[in-house]
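Re-running PAS fold-4 domain-containing protein to confirm reproducibility after the cluster update. Everything else is unchanged from the original entry.
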Amino acid sequence: MDNYLQWTNVVRSLRYGLVITNMEGNIVDYNEGWVQIALQNNVPSDFDWHGVNLIQMAECRSDFGDHLAKYCLSKLDELLQGADSFEPVQFHHHTITGPQWLMLEIAPLLDQTRRPQGLVISLHDISALHTETVASLASDGSVDSSISQLLPMCAVCKRIRDNQDHWHSLESYLKTHLHIEFTHDICTECMGHLYPQYAAILEKKQREQDL
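Result of re-run:
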């Protein structure tokens, strides 16, 4: 029991986000790092993640066209069979505090007999690393310096015009000029329309926090 408590304290003290799920995908434990990342995504700090089914959430995101969620689900059977087959994935999204880069890692949770008991999922905030990389590329001319200026955007379709008068979607423009890859998230309003079961939980917690 003492060894278990020591291990639990170590996990909870880690700065990156960590959750442990059972075989069905329900969260059985998580650390403060996970809470802080969720807080940046407008989830109340006192939200109780215990019992939240991450597999169901991934399925919802996959149905909405999230490529990262599809990739995670494609590896799910192997992971739940005990295979450490998940290659770490970097992805970019926007939070209430600005752009954020995260590193996602998933591994099977094995018992002493090497039998899978669930999943260990971690999120590392690597935004500072990407900020330094972009600044370095900009300084040596690898990134188009025009991105720091005003960008001509169509008022209707929101496409961006480049220096050759060609129009590009915002995603393709940023991929070309900043080498940014995108994943897809769901904003609060769309979450309420498409997946009210999860939105209702978050709204309830927000109301309780505001009281």
